[in-house]
Amino acid sequence: MSEHQSSQSSPDQSRTCLAAVFHGAGRPLKLQSFPRPMLQAGEALVRVRLCTICGSDLHTLKGLRIEPTPSILAHEVVGEIVDVGQPGPRDLDQQPLRRGDRVTWSICVSCSDCDRCRSGLPQKCRRLVKYGHSVAEGREALSGGLAEYILLRSGTAIAKLPADVPDEVASPINCATSTIAAAYRAAGDVDGQRVMVFGAGMLGLTAVAMGRELGATQVVICDVDQARLTLAERFGATDTITVDSIASIESSFDVLLECSGAPEAIEAACRIGDVGSRVILVGSVMNSRPVQLDPTTVVRKWMTIAGVHNYAPMDLYSAIDFISRCHDKYPFAELVAKTYALTDINAAIDHSLQHRPIRVAVRPEVSTSW
């Protein structure tokens, strides 16, 4: 495999960049220097313009998820290409990518050759690599968003971003937005249907807005936080329900998106799903108590229950299209509560854990002279 060094780069291969490294739950992230890698065919070196801290990052930091160490966390990233290998990578439209392109990319890199990839599940590839979830060692150490630069591996699904979409809005596209696009793809056509969403975080708020854009006549959302329910109305929710009142709800729904991960929400979804309903589980990514489910309800209602974890490149494409059309229609830009420098990463984490905003952002300040 060939290696390529940009003609604009310094011949000094010891040139380094900064990253915040995770060494274990409950420990502050440590700022460390990493060498800039020589690029191989199909790779790209990307300057991180903005990174948002996802809920899964916080779960890892609290020890609720187990990730390898040392690692560079965070996968919700907007970046600018500063160098490409030879031959260079191409975007989702098979157009060549060049220096200066502002891009997002799939959090998953698939082999395209295993049985799962060939059967239409590249997001569950047997040799899957995930940005923000890999060991920070060797030439591919720069694999997470909490860094000045990130190395995009060959085979990564990369997409150019419209110039009018702010970084703060674009950053979650390759996580929450694409995941919800995958959830609606699993649910099928929702035009003219009744949608119920559980959880009013980034996933749930996105699900409300996307459901309305897909033609749902009713999109109801349930959460424990009244402030988030009020915010959901600005994303198009036709009604809001508190967790305390969900037991008494008598309405039925055609599509139910569970984005909270709470077993009680899954049980409620199966109870209020109508005949022919589709229950899509999105939020259950950590261990929880077993769900109590009456199988006769599922059988007699012809109910479908499906899980969505990761997403395919087609979902990233749909997510970009949705945000491109609707970012001015819904207040996505307001969901980033505060922005920190990379050198203040531990303050950013503390703010996220203490105040529970929808998102906190990190914007590295680095030289663009490479």
Task: Describe, in plain words, how this protein is organized in 3D.
The chain has ten helices and 19 strands. It has 370 residues and is of the alpha/beta class. It has two domains: 3-166 and 327-362, Medium-chain alcohol dehydrogenases, catalytic domain (Quinone Oxidoreductase, Chain A, domain 1, Alpha-Beta Complex); 182-307, 3-Layer(aba) Sandwich (Rossmann fold). Strand 18, helix 10 (345-355) and strand 19 form a beta-alpha-beta unit. Helix 4 crosses helix 5 and helix 4 (176-187) crosses helix 9 (313-326).
Question: What is the CATH homology-level superfamily of the largest domain?
Answer: Medium-chain alcohol dehydrogenases, catalytic domain
Kindly name the structural category. Answer: alpha/beta
CATH class of the largest domain: Alpha Beta
Global mean pLDDT:
93
Gyration radius, to the nearest Å?
A: 21 Å
Please write the string of helix (H) and strand (E) elements: EEEEEHEEEHEEEHHEHEHEEHEHEHEHE
Strand content: 15-25%
Unreliable residue runs = 1-14
Helix content: 10-25%
Total of helices: 10
**Number of separate structural domains:** 2
Write down the overall geometry: globular
CATH-defined topology of the largest domain: Quinone Oxidoreductase, Chain A, domain 1
Termini, distance in Å?
Answer: 23 Å
Overall strand count? 19
CATH architect. name of the largest domain: Alpha-Beta Complex
Major beta-sheet overview:
7 strands, mixed
